[in-house]
Design brief:
About 5% of the residues lie in helices and about 40% in strands. The protein is mainly beta.
Length: about 140
């Protein structure tokens, strides 16, 4: 996979990307209502309280939805076409976007399949780039 350029990082996203670069998927948990929160933000979208604490996901979940891109979403991904991205419901209670390794079984939909995450670090020899999440199906059905 090509080096994905670093997005314009702001606020709480900076911590998420630093954790991702260290090989961890971070999400937030509200200290007031115990709601798991994704995407990074200042206040809980459920109760409006600013008691969000960072947690680390084990990286296991279930594919909620996915799509296969036949055209690159960004010029640096041109060589990766076709590639898949998925919305995954992590076991901790958040839905997150990442790349998806499609199984070679000739058409079984990954929706509802269990996946585990690995972190793909950018090529150290290339300029820039950001760590990305790659979900790989485990073969189990949720």
């Amino acid at each position: 996979m090509a080096n994905v350029p670093l997005p314009a990082v702001r606020g709480e996203e900076a911590y998420f990307y630093s954790e991702l670069a260290a090989g961890r998927i971070a999400y937030q948990l509200c200290g007031a209502c115990a709601q798991a929160v994704w995407y990074p933000r200042d206040v809980c979208p459920t109760c409006g309280i600013d008691q969000l604490e960072w947690q680390v996901s084990a990286g296991n979940g279930t594919v909620y939805s996915y799509t296969v891109l036949e055209r690159a979403g960004h010029p640096v991904r041109r060589e990766d076409v076709p590639y898949a991205v998925a919305l995954v419901d992590l076991d901790e209670g958040v839905r997150i976007l990442g790349n998806l390794a499609l199984p070679d079984d000739g058409g079984t939909t990954p929706i509802g399949r269990r996946v585990t995450a690995t972190i793909a670090l950018p090529d150290a020899d290339a300029d820039g780039g950001v760590a990305t999440i790659l979900f790989t199906p485990t073969g189990e059905v949720a």
